[in-house]
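Example record

One chain of 115 residues, shown exactly as stored in the release files.
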Amino acid sequence: MGWKNFKNSRWYPVFTIFSSIYVLVLTAFAVWMIFFDTNSLRIHLELNREIEKLQKTQQFLKEEIAKDKKIIEQLSDPKELEKFAREQYYLKKKNEEIYLIEYEDSLKLKEQEDQ
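Predicted structure tokens for this chain:
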């Protein structure tokens, strides 16, 4: 296949496009930026995933802060504070006895967990 036959073939326009120095430089630049550069596409994708993860964590923590603020507002009332202390920490007043009542269902669950 000679040069004249190659010029007449259907692959000649494709060859001329890809043999252009501009296309070669542009292709090399694109490959460099996508795969090898410090700001490559892969790094950007990893950073985007980390940003999404941090945003989810931030949203979760904001919800937890809202819950805690609500609890703090409730505990500003002395009766609610006493109720919270009795329920959570089993605190009592002097000369007062506390009785913990466990239902049969909860006892069965504890026995199953022990096995």
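Notes: The helical segments are 3-8, 12-19, 21-36, 41-75, 78-89, 104-114.
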